[in-house]
Prior knowledge:
Blueprint: H1 4-14, H2 18-25, H3 29-36, H4 46-52, H5 57-61, H6 77-87, H7 91-104
Amino acid sequence: MIRGERVEARLKxxxxxxxxxxxxxxxxxxxxxxxxxxxxxxxxxxFQIARALETSPEYLSGEIDxxxxxxxxxxxxxxxxxxxxxxxxxxxxxxxLLRITKRLSSEDT
Length: 109
C-alpha cells in the first residue's frame, strides 16, 4: 500500500514533479497521479518510487513516520548526511567538490 500524500510530500521536498517521478520509475504520469490522488494504493513499483524519492518503502506505506533513509552500516550519521547532500548536487558541482577533496587529502589521482 502506498500513501499518496507521502509521495506528494517527498516530491515537494525534492522540488520534483509527477512527470519526473514517472520518468524515473518507468511509470506513466497517469499512474503516478492515481497513486497521489488515492485512486490506487497498490503498486509493484514501491521500491522504485521510494528510491527515486530518496526515502524508504516503509515510509511510503505508512509503516514508519520518518522519511529519512537509515544510514548504511559502517557509516556515521555525519557521513550519511554528507552523502545525502552530495547526491543533491549537480554533476558539475560534484566533480568540483571531488577535485577539492582530492587536493585536501593530498591524493595524486
